[in-house]
From TrEMBL:
It comes from the Bacteria. One of its GO terms (biological process) is pentose-phosphate shunt. It catalyses: 6-phospho-D-glucono-1,5-lactone + H2O = 6-phospho-D-gluconate + H(+). This is 6-phosphogluconolactonase. Pathway: Carbohydrate degradation; pentose phosphate pathway; D-ribulose 5-phosphate from D-glucose 6-phosphate (oxidative stage): step 2/3. The gene is pgl. Its EC number is 3.1.1.31. GO terms for molecular function: 6-phosphogluconolactonase activity. It comes from Saccharomonospora azurea NA-128.
C-alpha cells in the first residue's frame, strides 16, 4: 500500500510549535477558524475527533478559547476516527473524554453527534455489529449530503483529527494488521490491540482519505521516530500513520520534540 503519486490525496505540510501547550492552543485556534470558515461557506461543517493526549488537549483548549463561539455548534456534525470498545461510562472511552473536554460545554445538536457504539450499547459486546452500524451511519450521511455521490461510503469530512502512537498506529489501525490493509469497509472492529484497551473500532485508511483536511496532532520525543518515518514516505502497512492523508490538505501539527528526527528532505 502506498500514497506515493496518488493524485487524490495531498502532500503533507508540517507546522512545528515550540512545545505541547503552544501546539494545543494553536491547533484549537486553527480548528475554530477552519470550522467557522467552512460554516460561512456551506452553512454547516463536520469534524472527526480523535482520542489520545494531544487530541483531547486541543478540545480542552477549544473550550477555554474566547473565540469558541465563532463556531455554530448547532450546525456541526461530530464523528470519531476511532473508539475504545468499552462501556459508555468507562473513562477510557474517547467519546467520554471528548464530552468532558468540550462537547458537554457547547450547544451541539445531539442528533449530530455521531458516537461509535459502546460495548454496553444496543449491539452488546459485539464489535463486528458495532463497526457495521457505524459504517451504515456514515454511508447514510454520505447519501444525504448534497455533494456526495450515491456511491460514497463516507461523507467528505471537513476536518479529520488524528493522533499517533510511537509505533506508528493512527486511529486504531496498528502496524502490519488486516485492518490497516482494509480497502473495502469504512469501519472495522479491531481486536487484540497492542495498546489497551484491546478491542476497538476504527475508520480505515480509505475512510480517512475521504476527508478534505487531515490534521495529525502529536507531541513529545517518543513520537519523533514515527513522525520522521511517516514524512520520509514509509509504507502505511508497517506505519499506518504514513497513509493518513486528506484530499485537500494534510497538516502535521507537532511540537519541537516530535519534530526532532525529521530529515531535511522529508518535509
Ligand atoms: O489509543 C489511542 O491512541 C492514539 C494516540 O494517543 P496518544 O495519547 O499516544 O497521543 C489516538 O490517536 C487514538 O485515537 C486513541 O484511541
Amino acid at each position: 500500500m502506498s500514497t506515493a503519486f496518488d493524485p487524490t490525496v495531498s502532500d503533507p505540510t508540517v507546522v512545528v510549535h515550540p512545545d505541547q501547550d503552544v501546539l494545543a492552543a494553536a491547533a484549537a485556534a486553527r480548528l475554530i477558524a477552519t470550522l467557522a470558515d467552512v460554516q460561512a461557506r456551506k452553512g454547516s461543517a463536520s469534524v472527526v475527533l480523535t482520542g489520545g493526549g494531544m487530541g483531547i488537549a486541543v478540545l480542552d483548549q477549544v473550550r477555554r478559547s474566547p473565540a469558541r463561539d465563532a463556531v455554530d455548534w448547532s450546525a456541526l456534525d461530530v464523528y470519531w476516527g476511532d473508539e475504545r470498545f468499552v462501556p459508555a461510562d468507562d473513562d477510557e472511552r474517547n467519546e467520554k473524554q471528548a464530552r468532558t473536554a468540550l462537547l458537554d460545554h457547547v450547544p451541539v445538536d445531539e442528533e449530530r453527534v455521531h458516537a461509535m457504539t459502546a460495548s454496553d450499547g444496543p449491539f452488546g459486546d459485539d464489535p463486528d455489529a458495532a463497526a457495521a452500524a457505524y459504517a451504515e451511519a456514515l454511508a447514510a450521511a454520505a447519501r444525504s449530503a448534497d455533494t456526495a455521490t450515491s456511491a460514497a461510503q463516507v461523507p467528505s469530512f471537513d476536518v479529520l483529527l488524528l493522533g499517533l502512537g510511537g509505533e506508528g498506529h493512527t486511529a486504531s489501525l496498528f502496524p502490519d494488521t488486516a485492518e490497516v490493509r482494509e480497502e473495502r469497509s469504512a469501519v472495522v472492529p479491531v481486536r487484540d490491540c497492542p495498546k489497551p484497551p484491546p478491542t476497538r473500532l476504527s475508520l480505515t485508511l480509505p475512510a480517512i482519505r475521504a476527508a478534505e483536511e487531515v490534521w495529525l496532532l502529536t507531541a513529545g520525543e517518543a513520537k519523533a521516530d514515527a513522525v520522521a518515518l511517516a514524512l520520509g514516505g514509509a509504507d502505511p502497512v508497517s506505519l499506518p500513520v504514513a497513509g493518513a492523508r486528506g484530499k485537500q490538505r494534510t497538516v502535521w501539527l507537532i511540537d519541537r520534540a516530535a519534530a526532532g528526527k525529521i530529515q531535511p528532505h522529508s518535509e
